[in-house]
């Protein structure tokens, strides 16, 4: 059975060792696997090559369309497990796209990984709208949950599902990460925190940006807001180190 991965170059699956650039594990050596496909369409998405294929007219600020066959590659679950096991970091980050769309296959891949290299720490990044497959949920150590605010361009009826947000807020393994572009976005974050009783210690605010200059400009006022409201701030370390590039 196979998983559908994103690519760094046509035919080359996006599997790489790097430092986690965001959230509670920022700076930790990690192996990344980027899966393809997403059920949402953020206008500022920096991995639009995982979902905005030719013929998809959902809005994106770059207005680029990607050829599916150049930007998706299938890989056998066992082969992917072997590729992960061969890399140095003992922390795996499954990202996307929306990884939970392939939850059952990810669970089978992790079972194969455990047979080769048991005990790796597993993080799954998600947009919050998809429930984890039970077999996968049993193996995940940490969820990095990034609900999409109104400025993402996604309708709230698709992006902010009350039953899912409540479930993530009640899940101690789940850390929330909100992408913030403007000060006006902060009222929406605070309303969601209050509605779902999200602990400040599990709520990160992250500036939106695909360049160091954009991140620094937004970080100044966003960091002040976090310190004033008992929330956590996260930068985008990989952007500062390598820029907006695949495989980093």
The first-to-last residue Cα distance is 27 Å
Largest sheet: 8 strands, mixed
CATH superfamily: Aldolase class I
H/E element sequence: EEEEHEHEHEHEHHEHEHEH
Strand order of the largest sheet: 3-4-6-7-8-9-10-11
Radius of gyration: 17 Å
Q: Based on helices, strands and strand pairing, what is the structural class?
A: alpha/beta
**General shape:** globular
| Total tally of structural domains | 1
CATH architecture: Alpha-Beta Barrel
Mean pLDDT: 98
Percent of sequence in beta strands? 15-25%
Give the helix level as a range of percent. 25-40%
Poorly predicted runs are none
CATH C-level label:
Alpha Beta
CATH topology: TIM Barrel
Counted by DSSP, the helix tally is 9
Tell how many strands the DSSP assignment holds: 11
Tell me about this structure.
- It comes from Novosphingobium soli.
- S-adenosyl-L-methionine binds at residues 44-46, 97, 146-148.
- The chain has 248 residues and is of the alpha/beta class.
- The chain has one domain: TIM Barrel.
- It has helices spanning 68-71, 77-85, 103-116, 134-137, 156-159, 162-169, 185-196, 212-229, 237-242, and strands at 2-9, 12-13, 15-19, 29-34, 72-76, 91-95, 121-126, 142-145, 174-180, 203-207, 232-233.
- It is globular.
